Amino acid sequence: MKYYPLFVHNGLSLKPTLAWLAILSTLPLSVSATDADSPEYTDTIELQDSYVRPDYVEIERLRDTKEIIVIPKEEIQERGNRTISDVLKSVPGISVDTTGQGDIDIRGQGSETAQRNLQVLLDGASITTLSNHPYSTNYDVVPIEQIERIEIIPGGGSVLYGSGTAGGIINITTNLRGLKDPKSSVLAEWNSDGYRLNGSIGSKMGEKFSFLGTATKLDRDLYYKDTYRNSEYYSAGLRWDLMPNQSLLLRASHLSEESQYIKTLTANKIKQYDKDYVPPDKTVTVGVDSDGHLIKKNISGYLTGDRDIDSYNLSYQNDLTEQLHFISDVFYTDGFYTNNANWEQRVDQKSQGAKLKFDIGYWDDSNILLGFDYSKQDASISYIGSYKKDSAGKYYGVPYNFSYEKDVKALYALNSLKWDKYIFTQGLRREQAKWSFDKGGTVTGAGTSNRWNTAAELSAAYLYRDTGRVYARMNAATHCLMACKLAIKRL
């Protein structure tokens, strides 16, 4: 018996590198020009009857009892979206900051709350950062040409995804996730807002190997005058089908980006200047000379940001039997971000982890999902936080050093029992989160926190047929979702 989801929302500087020249010289070129004044993607995404089957068993288990918005590649291409932010802006209930930082807010939580309660995944691995000082996560980390689909779970899924997901989950799937049909292509597009170039080289090597390499360059003007984001992105993936029921997939990517943007703007300024607003220059202290005098410098009122991110993923899948499947993902990300909010500041971020899952089937289309999650995130920042005078009246800089670390280990189980037209799910997650911080330099202090979080879920759904079509309805009286989070602080 086949079941369908309760909620389904479909429809949703110019220097060419050697890599670019190599790709463009080996592939046929198709060029298109678009009108910058063409309508934005503001159409309401309508409910459809079809569902794009996900590559993730977690989403497969949630789709019966949760609202899942699916934006497939075809819709993204038809609408002419240029970035992930463009795609997300089109979804009702989701707002994306237009100033340049790309903060995402689902259902009006507010930017600060959203940063704490939203988890964004790239090919199943979290890219949500640990520290947002001065790093504010910009989720436009993958060129739009590499996106296969985006799945959004507005209600979150604490049992399967853990703490920090109460505000929602956004899962971005790239063409490197499956590598089932790698293709070669090239694209060049330009308009009054900038240009983008994309090239891919894909091939199947016999029956067991598939390869895909991509390169993308984006130069794009943002909404306000003289604001922009320029980036280069390179990725490669190799799939090895060891046996008909086993596959190994290795993916790697590199992103370099520079940007200039406006963080905040008052309503009066927007009304007065709209797109033509230019922030006034500001005077900042950039250091101390040999005589102990402060060095002042006038800089632009715009904020600037540079970013580099390297990511590596290894996935292994084994269909042990028709009813028993093992899935594992190992990931590692390393990068930095700088901005000039308070002169030059740089934060280094690193994350690594693994997800192990056993999917056990029984009866007709019922399943138990058992999983183990491990992740470790590190962030550090060093800068001159203030300037003081010594006994001789000379200024000196006060160094600030901060380091943060978060380790998470979790076990969870989710049972999906399907009987006739009814679906019942029961889930439990036990998670240990260890936080630590250390302040060096003149400002000193350190601390640790060991917390246990528990999430439980109980839900039921009923599906019925009418006039030859499949409909889905959930009775609120039979649906109970508990997100019980118990924090136990160990000294």
From TrEMBL:
What residue stretch is flagged as signal peptide?
Answer: 1-33
Q: Which GO terms describe its biological process?
A: siderophore transmembrane transport
Q: Magnesium among the record's keywords?
A: no
One Pfam family, please name it. Answer: Plug
One GO cellular component term of this record is: cell outer membrane
Boundaries of each TonB-dependent receptor plug domain copy? 66-169
The terms under GO molecular function for this entry are:
siderophore uptake transmembrane transporter activity
Task: Tell me the domain of life.
Answer: Bacteria
Query: Is Transmembrane there in the keyword field?
Result: yes
Mark the transmembrane ranges: none
Q: Which InterPro entries match?
A: Beta-barrel_TonB_sf, Plug_dom, Plug_dom_sf, TonB-dep_rcpt-like
Alphabetized UniProt keyword annotations:
Cell outer membrane, Membrane, Receptor, Signal, Transmembrane, Transmembrane beta strand, Transport
The way it spans or sits in the membrane comes to:
Multi-pass membrane protein
Q: What subcellular compartments does it reside in?
A: Cell outer membrane
Q: PANTHER family, from UniProt? A: BLL4766 PROTEIN, TONB-DEPENDENT OUTER MEMBRANE RECEPTOR
Family assignment from sequence similarity: Belongs to the TonB-dependent receptor family.
Name the record gives this protein: Enterobactin outer-membrane receptor
Q: State the organism's lineage.
A: Bacteria, Pseudomonadati, Pseudomonadota, Gammaproteobacteria, Enterobacterales
